Amino acid sequence: MNISEIRNGISLKNIPNFDLSQTFDCGQCFRWEKIKNKYHGIVQGKSVTMCQNENEILIENVSLTEFENFWFDYFDLGTDYKKIGEHIAKINPVLFEAYQQCRGIRILKQDPWETLCSFIISQNNNIPRIKKIIFSLCSNFGDKIGENFSFPSAGKIATLNLDDLSPIKSGFRSKYILDSARKVANKEINFEILSNATTENARNSLMNIKGVGPKVADCVLLYGLHKLEAFPMDVWIKRVMDAFFSKESPKMFGPYAGIAQQYLYHYSRTNSEKLEI
DNA sequence: GCCCAGGTATAAA
DNA sequence: TTTATACATGGG
What we know:
Layout lengths: L1 E5 L2 E5 L6 H5 L7 E4 L2 E6 L2 E8 L2 E5 L3 H11 L6 H11 L1 H9 L10 H11 L4 H15 L2 E2 L2 E2 L4 H5 L3 H4 L8 H12 L5 H6 L2 H8 L7 H11 L8 H13 L12 H13 L7
Antiparallel strand pairs: 1-2, 2-6, 3-4, 4-5, 5-6, 7-8
The chain binds a DNA duplex through helix 5, helix 6 and helix 12.
């Protein structure tokens, strides 16, 4: 792993388990877009461009200080995914094959409020339309950043009503968006506290929000709060496998953690025939 | 028209 | 406690 500052950004060389397309297009985030070999994202109110070739990844317009203070953790570069893969290999061959296919995914540590709001919007919805609604939410209520818009704060959304949200066409989810924004704005949901709480307590708190069930809660725990650690690996692998191979709802993984979620999701999309029971 | 989309609230059994 | 259905909207 080699991190160095170059004239217009940061160069990452030989970073294991890091593929931009797998990471950005796997469904964990909604504000990174590929345009002509480059990924453009809006993160924490900042517009950033990245590209990848061979074993080098470039992050444009970011200083070494910014990288160390924010982006290193955002991309979860302190976690050894290879070690996780080796562990998975011992547990289950199907899971390991899924890992092999998706070994380039890094679980992004995203802003908890943005994650919460985004995955509320994701329910019973498809990714293109999720992105469209989030784009609309940002352009209507976010702050302008050059050509783009920041993700609006919970405080800002909390001042709105259902009619205000009608332009983003989020349908029945609007009332859930407002409830989540109000609870975050008035600190009924306090991410500082949740990040120090047990995973179970944090999940229960999140599920007090209207429109937040186990799936949305787990996405917030994983992508917003990076809470993987509370479940022993064998426990959540088993839960993922149980949920995945039950016919009822392969997308409802229950109380698991998400590296396996991501691996299995990708595996299911590319190997659906192998998953028939 | 009909079905589905990375679910959840609600009512009914 | 478990199971069925509605929900807004848009694309295939």
